[in-house]
Design a protein that fits this description.
alpha+beta; Aminopeptidase; globular
């Protein structure tokens, strides 16, 4: 069972990440359809996830939450790293493919960005998205993020270098 609700939404809740969530998070990050855009190039077994990832997502310079919908774990969302001096963070999110197309990523991202602006006093939230990830680009565009540029050959995905698109929203352009 996910940890307690930290932010309540209409269709999703953002909950604290607990050790019992590691198996779900590990499975999600290793899923080929998620890993292509949000994961890494090496698998994370449970021990590695516990040793490396859990400490990172529990750190002081990170807002990381489990996304829950209809009493089920469906994904995660983060603002990381948080740079307090510059008032900046990068938005990251993923939803397990079993739950795609239900608006969970959009609502979770909106809740996280609102939290970043209203509670963490951020000025800017950015998102860097693999260029062919149309669904993720739609999420940030719906939320009012502005396309700022293309980072050419910025990631190595599926055996080839790919571009990543940079989006951002400023606090004065945000409507939660």
């Amino acid at each position: 069972m996910p940890g307690p609700v930290f932010i309540e939404g209409d269709g999703v809740d953002l909950c604290t990440v607990e050790r019992e969530d590691i198996e779900f998070l590990q499975q999600g990050m290793n899923h080929p359809d998620v890993r292509r855009y949000a994961g890494g190039d090496v698998p994370h077994n449970r021990q590695r996830y516990e040793d490396e990832r859990f400490d990172v997502i529990s750190g002081d310079d990170v807002f990381h939450a489990l996304v829950r919908a209809e009493s089920q774990r469906v994904g995660d969302v983060s603002l990381a790293p948080i740079d307090e001096r510059r008032g900046w963070a990068n938005l990251g999110y993923w939803v397990h493919p079993d739950h795609w197309g239900k608006g969970y990523a959009t609502e979770a991202a909106s809740l996280a960005v609102t939290h970043g602006f209203e509670e963490l006093a951020l000025h800017r939230v950015s998102a860097t998205i693999v260029a062919d990830n149309e669904a993720s680009k739609r999420v940030v565009e719906k939320l009012g993020f502005v396309h700022e540029g293309t980072k050419r050959d910025d990631a190595f995905v599926g055996g080839e270098y790919v571009d990543r698109e940079v989006y951002a929203v400023l606090t004065d352009g945000w409507e939660s």
